[in-house]
Amino acid sequence: MSATEATATMERPQGARWLAAIPAMMAGACSIGLIFTALTPVLPRLSAQFGGGKVGAEIAGQMVMSVPAIGLILGGIGSGWLIERVGARRLLLASLLLYALCGSAGLWVGDLWALFVSRTLLGFFTACISTSANSFIGEFFDEKGRGRMLSAMTVVGSLLATCAVLMSGWFGEHVGWRAPFAIYLIVPAVLFTLAAIGLPAIPIRTSGHGEAGQGVFLRNWPIYLMIGALYVVLMMTSTQISYLLTERGITSPIIQSRVISMAFAWLIVGAIFYGTMQGRIGWAPTYYIGLLSLGLGIGGLGFAPDAWLAGAATALKGFGAGILSPAFIHLVLNRSTPETRGRALGLMTTSMFVGDLANPIVVAPFRAVFGMHGAFISLGSLVLLGAVMAFFTGLGRKAPPAAGHRRVAA
């Protein structure tokens, strides 16, 4: 039995409230997915509106997409602290409202720096949404149910991101470059309504052993380091694969897009299988499968001579990513007690996006020494080595002992 299972005592909402609560608990994956997809089709027009010249326009577009990561990192640190003071439900509802306000700022702001600030704040409130929504999953589900819920959440978040891209393209074509910012009003409004109806207040808990954010980090820092390192590798098909394909002579944007899309399609497949595999064979074996799939996929891209094999390797990577994404949340939930859950989940979010931002910095020396193909092969090999080490060290087979807690406020 995990730490959270030993101490979680809240009863689930019943009937219609539970039907509303289930999608509300998926708010984390939904809000994160929208950040990096809802504006992609209109970035050239947005950049032309705010940027000065071709170079300035490109930089403006890149910054609009990258500054939310800063907010996500800071929000991951701050969200756990906020949960302990206002509670998960209040934080979720308030963050959804502020997410809508900051996300939709492009509908009316006319200054590039104001847009940067709004996008940074959007990242902060996204982290708060993710931490608080995931707290409810830890509260209401046992070990097997948690895996199924996290699997469904990853699938729904990925499908919503895909729909957001399609909606953004239509809005941008027929209404204008500002119109896709309205997506940030629609989705939070639906999630806010569902959360207000379905999710009860989780009692604010304090630790009987004087737990603090520093204690949570010191106890789990190897886990956060592992998550950050794996997110560096997971970002390879977002930041580096186009350069790899170009070096192989695969320069057609259409063919490149088809290869890259395999990662997203098979991520959904991996997420679907995660709940079933975790329920039948346990968390640890499922996690090892995810690591093996990721390592073979990234390493295989380094060897792939043509688009067909590159697509197959990308699919393998996507399958591994679909397993690992919910597995990370599951691991942190299983290693947390109710009173430390918020801080633990928040630090997990921080480690994820530190890994995202670190990708170009980490990959640069590998490219300099081994070339682009060698960089993929090297990083894939390191993941496979990590899978072997995780197997022999027994990562995830034992849950930490439950810490005592007491409730202080409803």
Describe this structure in words.
By secondary structure, this protein is an all-alpha fold. The chain is 79% helix and 2% strand. It is built from 16 helices and two strands. The chain has helices at residues 3-7, 16-24, 27-35, 43-50, 53-86, 88-103, 112-140, 143-174, 183-198, 213-234, 236-239, 241-247, 253-281, 283-303, 307-334, 341-393; strands spanning 204-207, 405-409. Strands 1-2 form a two-stranded antiparallel sheet. The model is unreliable at 1-8 and 398-410 (pLDDT under 50). Residues 21-398 form the Major facilitator superfamily (MFS) profile domain. Pfam families: MFS_1. It is a multi-pass membrane protein. This is Major facilitator superfamily MFS_1. The chain crosses the membrane at residues 18-39, 59-83, 90-110, 116-137, 149-171, 183-202, 223-243, 255-274, 286-304, 310-333, 345-366, 372-392.
Key terms:
410 residues; mainly alpha; two-stranded antiparallel sheet; 79% helix; globular; disordered N terminus
